[in-house]
Design a protein that fits this description.
alpha+beta, Helix Hairpins, D-amino Acid Aminotransferase, Chain A, domain 1, OB fold (Dihydrolipoamide Acetyltransferase, E2P), five-stranded mixed beta sheet, five-stranded antiparallel beta sheet, 24 helices, 36% helix, globular
């Protein structure tokens, strides 16, 4: 094939593949089989491999993800990405419509009602018909450039059709479909990795990956709700979020039409209404039908249809006056409580779990629910046999929120506090200040399993290959009783485990050897000391310099360490005074684990004398950014206080942002933080 022939054929294949992608993902009317599509894609890949200069940014071959990037650059939004005000009742919804009538001076106002997708906001820009970049909301003015990750989303066109504006900027929501999320969690569980809490968390974490190849393996999708720029050339964009750009669509209805024309997926369900009664009817109908949608929704978005009306109503400093989000109450269901099981955690905590008559709730069949603790059971007077109301507000395991006592027959039975551990039979213990009941036996098989899982977890010693199933086998076979026993394992001992071939055994032994070089703060966290999380573990090592110094410290000396208070210090002190724990440390030291913090040459002292708190979604894992702060002389704390110098806030920052505002703590974006370095 000559270069000219390859150029023509590659152009044809790109056009065909884009067309078939649109037919499959947007219009749901595919013309060819998956096998035929793959054949075309492989032919294009072969041509591009033979003629690398023919690879274009909009080529369908670029969806697999390129090489990892060092970090996210920042993109300033041409139009600010504003938030929406929320309302939670129909009365507030009526009040919103009355404000619209007052602002526009008329009774009938045409509005559009769309599902509020529970995902991550994104802005996507095309120039000359080709995808230029995609950016997260960020602080509303500036967001992270996630173009490499966005290109892996199959339903996102890399090139626009020739018959629509070739300069186009659209706003949408990246999400993870319910079905894809369930499958992803199954795969993570099989690999011994922690399950994602909900699709939104999984989506946010995926978009923040620095390796697009990982993103390409995740089932991300996207739905669009607005256009802020649409023109034949790079004309000036609109003034406000969702408002029509000059020469672009002049209503939300026209926005929907242009999105469809451009091949950008829009909401699956859309209503129109021109009265308060009509709005409420649409919101109620959406609440019934949203269960059938492929993505999670948490509300309805109501927008004034006309762009001219939008401009007349204007916006506050934070949100448009012509749009609002109606939030639905968390979905609930009634079912029968059949039994109560007791789970034993790594600290010995006994957690009651409700076994339910299976019921469909929030897109999945639920048969278990958390009961939190026995004090909660007594407060709500929950009994086996009760008809209960369960609620699933975004988390995997729903909770029992109330009992339908009026439905009782008299056959229900009380749920007593267990006097003994259900696994090892040891008498339970409960501190006066706490509601948690614990098994005090450190050798309880379930406690040992949970402790080992924690010790090996990614946040602690990060020993890959030692997931839940392998740990359970090791404990049940009495090969391992504590963390130190892990370092006595060899190929012969591991050969008797299920699903452990020679390669798996080799990798596991290598991971164990590598874990000996982990910094000592990981060891402190991995020990599972009550009340000691990642931040406290790092703070302790930074303050004392090593594990032995922490072990030798008095309660008073421990409380002098930042973020270690009157509750945590006695817990740490007691743990290191326990003879069993002291013997464990001796064996871990003998195994060659790192007990003393190695001195690391500081990159600079630019942040010397500053104390930072991190919150929200950032471009890298928080621990990596925390390391960066420390490398430049700063300190990192887990909570905002009067001693905090800066709060580094990413997207979806929560209560820490409010506390920083109250205390007058300076809030900086990640872009500002990078500039400081």
């Amino acid at each position: 094939m000559t270069h000219a022939e390859a150029t023509a054929r590659a152009a044809f294949l790109r056009t065909e593949l884009h067309r078939h992608n649109r037919l499959y993902y947007i219009e749901a009317r595919p013309e060819i089989s998956d096998q035929a599509f793959d054949t075309l894609l492989r032919e294009l890949q072969d041509i591009e491999a033979a003629f690398p200069d023919l690879v274009t940014p909009d080529s369908p071959t670029q969806r697999v993800g390129g090489a990892p990037i060092e970090g996210f650059t920042q993109i300033r939004h041409t139009v600010p990405m504003m938030s929406l005000d929320n309302t939670y009742s129909e009365a507030e919804m009526i009040a919103f419509f009355l404000r619209l009538q007052k602002g526009l001076g008329r009774e009938s106002i045409r509005c559009v009602i769309e599902p509020k997708v529970d995902g991550v906001a994104i802005s996507v820009r095309y120039e000359n018909g080709v995808l230029k970049h995609a950016a997260t909301r960020g602080d509303g003015q500036t967001g992270d450039d996630v173009s490499a990750n966005a290109r892996t989303i199959q339903s996102l066109p890399l090139r626009l059709p020739a018959d629509c504006p070739q300069t186009l900027e659209a706003r949408g929501e990246v999400f993870m479909p319910k079905e894809g999320f369930a499958k992803l969690n199954e795969e993570r569980e099989s690999a011994g990795e922690p399950r994602f809490a909900n699709p939104r968390n999984a989506t946010a974490g995926t978009l923040k990956q620095l390796d697009p190849r990982i993103v390409a393996r995740r089932p991300l999708d996207i739905v669009f709700y607005g256009i802020v720029d649409a023109s034949a050339d790079a004309a000036a964009p609109a003034d406000d979020l969702f408002s029509a750009a000059p020469g672009g669509p002049q209503s939300q209805s026209e926005v929907h039409a242009l999105l469809a024309k451009a091949g950008l997926r829009k909401a699956d369900l859309i209503w129109k209404a021109d009265s308060a009664e009509g709005l409420l009817a649409a919101i109620r109908e959406l609440d019934e039908k949203r269960k059938t949608l492929p993505y999670e929704t948490d509300g309805a978005v109501i927008k004034v249809d006309s762009s001219a009306d939008q401009r007349e109503l204007g916006a506050t400093s934070k949100a448009p006056r012509w749009a609002i989000a109606y939030k639905y109450q968390p979905e609930q269901a009634e079912t029968r409580l059949l039994a109560v099981d007791i789970q034993v955690g790594r600290t010995g905590a006994l957690t009651p779990v409700a076994r339910l008559e299976p019921v469909f709730l929030s897109g999945s069949t639920v048969s278990n629910a958390t009961l939190h603790n026995f004090e909660e059971i007594e407060r709500k007077d929950i009994r086996v046999g009760d008809l209960v109301v369960i609620e699933k507000a975004g988390e995997i395991i729903p909770a029992v929120v109330m009992v339908k006592k009026e439905s009782r027959t008299g056959d229900e039975t009380a749920i007593p506090r267990p006097p003994h551990c259900p696994v090892c039979g040891t008498a339970v213990h409960q501190d006066e200040e706490q509601v948690v009941i614990r098994c005090p036996n450190p050798h309880c098989p379930e406690v040992v399993k949970r402790r080992l899982e924690h010790f090996c977890s990614r946040g602690a010693m990060d020993i890959r290959g030692l997931g839940e199933s392998v740990v359970a086998q090791l404990v049940d076979a009495r090969l391992v009783r504590d963390a130190a026993d892990l370092y006595d394992l060899d190929a012969l001992k591991l050969a008797g485990l299920e699903r452990q071939g020679s390669k798996s055994i080799e990798n596991l032994l290598k991971a164990l050897a590598e874990s000996k070089q982990q910094p000592p703060w990981r060891l402190v966290f991995g020990l599972g000391i009550l009340h000691v999380g990642v931040t406290a573990a790092r703070t302790l090592i930074e303050h004392f310099g090593g594990v032995d110094a922490i072990a030798a410290a008095s309660i008073e000396e421990l409380t002098q360490c930042p973020d270690i208070g009157a509750v945590v210090a006695p817990s740490i002190h007691a743990w290191f005074r326990d003879p069993v724990n002291a013997a464990l440390l001796d064996r871990l030291r003998a195994a060659g684990l790192t007990f003393t913090q190695r001195s690391v040459e500081a990159a600079s002292d630019k942040l010397k004398g500053t104390t930072w708190v991190l919150t929200g979604a950032l471009s890298q894992p928080r621990e990596e950014i925390a390391d960066l702060i420390r490398a430049h002389g700063g300190k990192v704390s887990g909570s905002v206080s009067g001693k905090t110098t800066y709060l580094l806030a990413g997207e979806d920052a929560g209560s820490k942002l409010d506390k920083a505002a109250k205390l007058g703590v300076a809030v900086v974006s990640e872009e500002m933080f990078r500039a400081m370095l």
